[in-house]
Amino acid sequence: MSQKPMKKADIPAFLTAISAANPDPKTELAYETPFQLLVAVVLSAQTTDVAVNKVTPALFQAAHGPAEMVALGAEGIGPYIKSIGLWQAKARNVAALSAQLLLHHQGEVPEAREALEALPGVGRKTANVVLNEVFGHPTMAVDTHIFRLGNRTGIAPGKTPRAVEEALLKRIPRAMLKPAHLWLILHGRYLCKARRPECWRCPGAPQCTYPEKSHPG
Q1: Does the annotation mark 125 as catalytic?
Q2: Contacts from 169-172 at CB under 8 Å and sequence distance 24+?
Q3: 130 near 116, Cβ under 8 Å?
Q4: pTM, rounded to two decimals
């Protein structure tokens, strides 16, 4: 991966280019309430959104909110999510975070980062997704896609997810930060792929500093 930074002046043009087909992006996780998004993001760790979306409809039908999830308990949650990775630990975390929401937050998902990260199974990345998607905060949840793009394109090189996150927050214009989170994720998921980026059809190629751009065929 290239560590050559993209010129800061080129970043707005790069983001505008990759956002053209999806100017108002939405998460691909299926949810109806903030609680359901929180649960879905916890379930999505080391698992695809597609896999999570296959299990959450039945789970959320059985437990629409935290009280119902606590009633199910880890033993009751488990059978709904057995097809995804780390399902046993995730079942325990979903039951425990639901109990914490009832105990400390009147059953509502808190808007404060510290309160979110205090919940079982919720780390910085999960908190950033919820803050961005539910509350509109200009946060950057660095998943594998954003970490790869940060380095490969030069938009925010960094050796760790936290370093890439901090670089993105400094380098992306504040007005673009909120949607840029999903623009980058979706760009990495469908175009700037891990094994072979489709550089030949990338609208952001002129600004990208990746030196080994791929060609069709």
Answers
A1: yes
A2: 169/138, 169/140, 171/8, 171/11, 172/11, 172/15, 172/140
A3: yes
A4: 0.90
* List 125, 159, 193, 213, catalytic entry: 125
Q: Of the listed 10, 26, 90, 143, which one is catalytic? A: 143
Structure confidence by residue, pLDDT tens digits, 147-188: 999 999 999 999 999 999 999 999 999 999 999 999 999 999
Instruction: Please report the domains of the chain, with CATH numbers, ordered by start residue.
Output: 8-23+139-201 (1.10.1670.10), 34-133 (1.10.340.30)
Copy the structure tokens of residue 62: 């059985």
